[in-house]
């Protein structure tokens, strides 16, 4: 997103939340805000950011939301529009049950999302299919899914600068790829 678009977003936020007393007024302060918002929103589609801002304003918030929440809202809206979002836990479980019926314990199902794949692999496909205690496997899957979905979402929603700063550190620590 261009700086001019980000400036318009800040102006829109000021108009939607007139009580935003710490909003940048002009000059250097405004440039600092544009730069900060750019690090959080610059890689996103302007249409979804504006839709996210409108959505957040329409839920009756008294104060302007943090820019990170705006980022998360815009990404969720874009995922929904593109059909690339994380399935709900119930949808993931239905997908696993359908794969059991379709492939059986010797099959190799393909999963719609890596979080589902990671949970199935962690438990074990044969264990899921052959378990004498399906309620226990279901509970284990749902708990694992919730935890891994939270991690995936945090990683996926992070602005590019986070990875730019973390990758050299992770390489130096030898934790990349673990």
Quick summary:
By secondary structure, the protein is mostly helical. It has helices at 3-16, 27-41, 46-58, 67-82, 89-103, 114-123, 125-130, 134-157, 160-173. It starts with a helix and ends in a 5-residue tail after the last helix.
**Elements, N to C (H/E):** HHHHHHHHH
Outline type: elongated
Task: Give helix % range.
Answer: over 70%
Radius of gyration (CA) equals 21 Å
What structural class results from the helix and strand content?
A: mainly alpha
Q: Helix count, per DSSP?
A: 9
Spell out the key features of this protein.
about 180 residues, mainly alpha, elongated, 2 domains, single chain, 9 helices
Describe what you observe in this structure.
- The protein is mostly helical and 178 residues long.
- It folds into 2 domains: 3-82; 89-173, no CATH class.
- Helix content is 71%, strand content 0%.
- It contains 9 helices and no strands.
- The longest helix is centred in the C-terminal third of the chain and has 24 residues, at 134-157.
- The protein is elongated.
- The model has no long low-confidence stretch (mean pLDDT 91).
List the helices and strands and how they pair.
Blueprint: H1 3-16, H2 27-41, H3 46-58, H4 67-82, H5 89-103, H6 114-123, H7 125-130, H8 134-157, H9 160-173
């Amino acid at each position: 997103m261009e700086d001019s678009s980000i400036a318009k977003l800040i102006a829109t936020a000021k108009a939607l939340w007139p009580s935003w007393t710490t909003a940048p007024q002009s000059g250097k302060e405004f440039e600092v805000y544009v730069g900060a918002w750019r690090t959080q929103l610059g890689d996103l589609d302007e249409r979804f950011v504006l839709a996210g801002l409108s959505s957040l304003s329409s839920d009756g918030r008294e104060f302007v939301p943090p820019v990170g929440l705006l980022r998360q809202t815009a990404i969720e809206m874009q995922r929904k529009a593109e059909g690339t979002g994380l399935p709900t836990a119930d949808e993931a479980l239905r997908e696993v049950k359908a794969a059991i019926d379709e492939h059986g314990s010797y099959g190799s199902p393909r999963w719609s999302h890596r979080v589902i794949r990671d949970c199935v692999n962690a438990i074990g496909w044969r264990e899921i299919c052959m378990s004498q205690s399906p309620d226990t496997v279901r509970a284990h899957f749902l708990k694992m899914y919730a935890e891994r979905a939270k991690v995936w979402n945090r990683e996926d929603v992070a602005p590019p600068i986070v990875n730019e700063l973390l990758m050299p550190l992770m390489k130096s620590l030898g934790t990349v790829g673990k």
